[in-house]
Amino acid sequence: MSDPRTPAVELGKLHVSWADAPGIRGFFTTVDHKRIAARYIVTVVLLLFLAGMLALDMRLQLARPDMERMTPQLYNESFSLHGSTMLFLVSVPVMEAMGIWLVPLMLGQRALAFPRLAAFSYWLYLGGVLMLWVPHAFGITPDLGWFEYPPLSGPAYSPGHRADIWAQMITFTEVAALAASVNIAATVLKMRPPGMTLPRIPLFVWAMFLASLMTIFALPAVMMVTSMLIADRLVSTQFFAAAAGGDPVLFQHLFWWFGHPEVYIIFLPAAGFVSMIVETFSRRTLFGHAAVVLSMLAIAALAFGLWVHHMFAVGLPRLGNDFYTAASMAVALPAGVQIFCWIATLATGRPRFDTPLLWVLAFIVTFVIGGLSGIMTASAPLDQQLTDTYFVVAHFHYVLVGGAMFPLFGAFSYWYPKATGRMLSERWGKISFWMVFGGFNLGFFPMHILGLQGMPRRIYTYGEGMGWGPLNLVASIGSAIAVAGGVLFVANAAWSYFRGRAAGPNPWGGSTLEWAAPSPPPQHNFDAMPVVDSLTPLWTQKRELAVMTGLAVDRREVLVTSVVEAAPEYRQKSPPPSTAPLLAAVAVTILFVGSIFTPWALVWGAVPVAIGLTLWFWPQRERSTTGPLRVRNR
Amino acid sequence: MPGNRSSSFLVLCAFALAGCSAESRTAGADLPQTPPTGAQDPRAARYERNAYQVAQGGRYFTWYGCGGCHGSDAAGALNLNGKLWAHGSDLDRVYRFIAEGHGDARYGERIPVEQLWQITAYVRTLPRLKPEKRRRQDVDQVGEAQGDNWTGPVLP
């Protein structure tokens, strides 16, 4: 559906100037945020499957006492690979991907602020994926869990390259996430449509913006700490050698300074999904929009003051433990405000229980249970008892799967028609929903009880006399059902891609700008720049969306607006496709991989990186390729 | 170019096997527990080319107090970082000297064969271990019981 107010000639020009090169060349050079995000999501789904199979393998091992189908070493590798993949290669990247895809669409824009940076971000993320999984194919797998504390991961106790691979995989993914976050933050601040003042920003955009800021503050800490670990292992520095004046606890502080905010970097976008879905399916504007925004802000700030609750058992000063217990309790307040706002919206609206809303309801139930077990583990005295037991495993799966994956599946179901132009099958969607939701709770609730009974986490088997057999069997059966449901969910998406019912531009009656674009959106997203007069423009401008004209159609141009009032400021050239992001990512990959073998990789590896970046930023006179001077360049 | 492709595949496989044996980590001995049969005993590769086995040898090296005389700053013949080993550097000779050449310590009777293999592997890699790296590893293990600090049971 194209906007009738844009003349056909101009539309044709728009298509030409925003088109990718055809075929394989377009694949490697594209800077289209939708293609990049789709790539991210396909990769994530693949990894979700692989890591899910690992989980199933581990649950099979634990289903009965005294099983010997896995050795302790294989079990260690399995949970390390599962955890590292899920945290670093699935949860954070998939949220960034949703932001890369949705933020420009929700802002009525044609591109992100830095299109090439988004392409670079994906290639580097792919480097991180390969960094972890290619060595795994050769039998070199990190085996110390998803956080690898020194001295266990130090040079004396982790010979070989297993720990290096883990540490460098983090560097890859964190540079990728930083690239994506800077991009999203700049886009939200400077590229909102005219009229979208701060109070009119949709909640998902708020959530992505805050999560991006958190990423920018939190991720450098973990990159630094894993680089220090590599330095300890490679060039024998003594950052974490207590006997030489170093401090192993410093690793834990810096890791959790990132690690705790990371939970909210994953959760905030999920809260954004929930807000959008609740609003659309309750068919009313969200209750307490300002309160939800402020709670997100409060969560984003408080998240940086809680990291010590991951370290209660380390033996820090009592006062420290007390303070962080209190701070952890405090975060329950804004989280509670959000949940009550969503419930109030549902209670006062006219809810329609389609699959996306079912996922949201499952989220509310599961996340509240996870929050309650969180309050238990966040109190220092109780944590002394619960730490490193299965209770912790139950807790973080409830908050991560319930708090992030369920909203994500809801978001997939909600925006799938927009991305593909086809509806998912509601019937199979509901079946897969009940399998995942039921299987998950059946699988993970018993782990609370197992933890209270004293079953430690990270054990490869247990004796029959412990009496943990029956509950473990239930947990394994539940996990298998949930994994089968997940496979069904993906199968539904694959089937609907070819056979699904055609979706119009706005199948759910959504209120935000992405629903004004055709499904799937063309490469330039919108024929004309929308102008916004409320929080829910598609509900208030019923007849026709107001638009702004004046952007060039014969070259890539986007609108830059002011930070607070979103008043148009100037037109900005948007960079065309390029191989530079891929080349730069390859150069960075060479540097990163080389630097686990020799420190000189940092020196010589910098040369190709410099060349790649120079090519990237090589100045180009716009009109020499698109205007009348184009002839000269042929 | 099918030949080219298959040869690069072979290189990849060789890399995979090499990676496997250098990084693999097994708990417990699965080779015959006897001293080396000679300088070319094929079991040597299993220990000397494997990062984990060498590292275990390093730990036992400190546990049994070897570092007391053979520390990284030891002088003369006691210093194992150099190439000039008085009693030879072949596998079987190093093993035999550790086991039988230390007089009253009688390491051959007090240390299990598996651990002697690992210690031998560690000692034989010492000339290639950079001094700062050896110091760094020692610093991490300083808290472990070694030699005189050992408070557990001791075989007579």
TrEMBL record, chain A:
<keyword id="KW-0408">Iron</keyword>
<dbReference type="InterPro" id="IPR000883">
    <property type="entry name" value="Cyt_C_Oxase_1"/>
</dbReference>
<dbReference type="InterPro" id="IPR036927">
    <property type="entry name" value="Cyt_c_oxase-like_su1_sf"/>
</dbReference>
<dbReference type="GO" id="GO:0015990">
    <property type="term" value="P:electron transport coupled proton transport"/>
</dbReference>
<dbReference type="GO" id="GO:0004129">
    <property type="term" value="F:cytochrome-c oxidase activity"/>
</dbReference>
<feature type="domain" description="Cytochrome oxidase subunit I profile">
    <location>
        <begin position="18"/>
        <end position="533"/>
    </location>
</feature>
<keyword id="KW-0249">Electron transport</keyword>
<dbReference type="GO" id="GO:0022904">
    <property type="term" value="P:respiratory electron transport chain"/>
</dbReference>
<keyword id="KW-0813">Transport</keyword>
<keyword id="KW-1133">Transmembrane helix</keyword>
<keyword id="KW-0349">Heme</keyword>
<dbReference type="GO" id="GO:0020037">
    <property type="term" value="F:heme binding"/>
</dbReference>
<comment type="similarity">
    <text>Belongs to the heme-copper respiratory oxidase family.</text>
</comment>
<keyword id="KW-1003">Cell membrane</keyword>
<dbReference type="InterPro" id="IPR023616">
    <property type="entry name" value="Cyt_c_oxase-like_su1_dom"/>
</dbReference>
<dbReference type="GO" id="GO:0046872">
    <property type="term" value="F:metal ion binding"/>
</dbReference>
<protein>
    <submittedName>
        <fullName>Cytochrome ubiquinol oxidase subunit I</fullName>
    </submittedName>
</protein>
<keyword id="KW-0472">Membrane</keyword>
<dbReference type="InterPro" id="IPR023615">
    <property type="entry name" value="Cyt_c_Oxase_su1_BS"/>
</dbReference>
<dbReference type="GO" id="GO:0009060">
    <property type="term" value="P:aerobic respiration"/>
</dbReference>
<dbReference type="Pfam" id="PF00115">
    <property type="entry name" value="COX1"/>
</dbReference>
<dbReference type="GO" id="GO:0005886">
    <property type="term" value="C:plasma membrane"/>
</dbReference>
<keyword id="KW-0186">Copper</keyword>
<keyword id="KW-0479">Metal-binding</keyword>
<keyword id="KW-0812">Transmembrane</keyword>
<keyword id="KW-0679">Respiratory chain</keyword>
